[in-house]
UniProtKB/TrEMBL annotation:
Provenance organism: Actinomadura violacea
PANTHER family: ALIPHATIC SULFONATES IMPORT ATP-BINDING PROTEIN SSUB (PTHR42788:SF13), TAURINE IMPORT ATP-BINDING PROTEIN-RELATED (PTHR42788)
Polar residues bias locations: 1-12
Domain of life of the organism encoding this protein: Bacteria
SUPFAM superfamilies registered for this protein in UniProt: P-loop containing nucleoside triphosphate hydrolases
Protein's name in the database: ABC transporter ATP-binding protein
C-alpha cells in the first residue's frame, strides 16, 4: 500500500498533442475494513488517472465505495493496497465538500469561510478579505454575520463551497453536495458550480447518484460497479466548454443518461450492502 502526495513542477514541457498530466493517479487501489469478525472488501482494485483541470463525475450503486475513494484521495483514509498519488503544486492540494455541509453551527458565516485560512496561519486581514471575496462570489455578502441555523439548505451549501475554495485547492472533492437540496436549488447550484470551475479550471472529482447531474457537470463520467467498487465504464458527455445547464434538455443528454442507466442497472445491490 502506498499513498503519495507529490509536489510536481507546474512547468512540465509537453507537446500540444499530449494529454495534460494527471492530478490524481491510482494504481490497484483497494480498501478493506473490519465489520465485526468479517473482512469487508469495500473498494477496488481501482486504476484511474484524472487529468489536471478535469471535472470528473462518478456514479454507481449505493455502497459501492464512491465516497470511500473520495476519502482516500482526501487523506481521511489510507488504501489497504495499491498506490495513490496526488500530484499538486499548491500548498493545499485538495479540499472536500460533504453532503451534510460540514460547517460549524457556532461560527458565523464569515468565520466558517475563513476557517481553513485561519488553520493555515494566513494573516487575519488577508484571510478576512479572501473569505469576503468568496462570500461575494457566492451571493452571501449580506449573511456574513449570520449563523448557519438561520440559513436555508442551499445557502449552507454555498458556505461550504466558499470555505473549500477560499483555501485555493488544486483539487476539489465533492461528495454528493447537492443531494439534500430540492430540485430548484440543485439546478441553481449546478449552474453556479459550472461558472466557478470554468473560470479557473481546477480539478474536480464529483460524486453523485444523479446521472443527469453527472452529464451536465462532467468532462467525463465514471461508472462504478457494485461493491467492491471498480471502474466499470467511462463516458464523455458530448458538450464543450463553457457549458450551461441547458444541455440537460438536449437529446444527447437523454441518450447518454439512458446508456448510463443500462450500465448501472445490473449493478444495483440489494439493501444491506455498503462500503465505508
Amino acid at each position: 500500500m502506498e499513498l503519495a502526495r507529490n509536489r510536481t513542477s507546474s512547468t512540465i514541457p509537453r507537446h500540444d498533442s499530449e494529454p495534460p498530466p494527471a492530478a490524481i493517479h491510482a494504481t490497484g487501489v483497494e480498501r478493506r475494513f473490519r465489520r465485526g469478525r468479517a473482512d469487508v472488501h469495500a473498494l477496488g482494485p481501482v486504476d484511474l488517472d484524472i487529468a489536471a483541470g478535469e471535472f470528473c463525475c462518478v456514479v454507481g450503486p449505493s455502497g459501492c465505495g464512491k465516497s470511500t475513494f473520495l476519502r482516500l484521495i482526501a487523506g481521511l483514509l489510507r488504501p489497504s493496497a495499491g498506490r495513490l498519488e496526488i500530484r499538486a503544486t499548491a500548498q493545499n492540494p485538495a479540499a472536500m465538500i460533504f453532503q451534510d455541509y460540514g460547517i460549524y453551527p457556532w461560527k458565523t458565516v464569515l468565520a466558517n469561510v475563513r476557517f481553513g485560512l485561519d488553520v493555515q496561519g494566513v494573516p487575519r486581514r488577508e484571510a478576512t478579505k479572501r473569505a469576503r471575496d468568496w462570500l461575494s462570489r457566492m451571493g452571501l455578502t449580506d449573511f456574513a454575520d449570520a449563523y448557519p441555523a438561520s440559513l436555508s439548505g442551499g445557502m449552507r451549501q454555498r458556505v461550504s463551497i466558499a470555505r473549500a475554495l477560499a483555501v485555493e485547492p488544486e483539487i476539489l472533492l465533492m461528495d454528493e453536495p447537492f443531494a439534500a437540496l430540492d430540485a430548484q436549488l440543485r439546478t441553481i447550484l449546478q449552474e453556479e458550480l459550472l461558472a466557478i470551475c470554468e473560470a479557473d479550471r481546477r480539478t474536480v472529482l464529483f460524486i453523485t447518484h444523479s446521472l443527469e447531474e453527472a452529464i451536465v457537470l462532467g468532462d467525463r463520467v465514471l461508472v462504478m460497479s457494485a461493491r467492491p467498487g471498480r471502474i466499470l465504464a467511462e463516458r464523455v458527455p458530448p458538450f464543450g466548454r463553457p457549458r450551461s445547464g441547458d444541455v440537460r434538455h438536449s437529446p444527447e443528454c437523454a441518450e447518454l443518461k439512458a446508456e448510463l442507466w443500462d450500465l448501472l442497472r445490473g449493478e444495483i445491490e440489494p439493501a444491506g450492502g455498503g462500503g465505508e
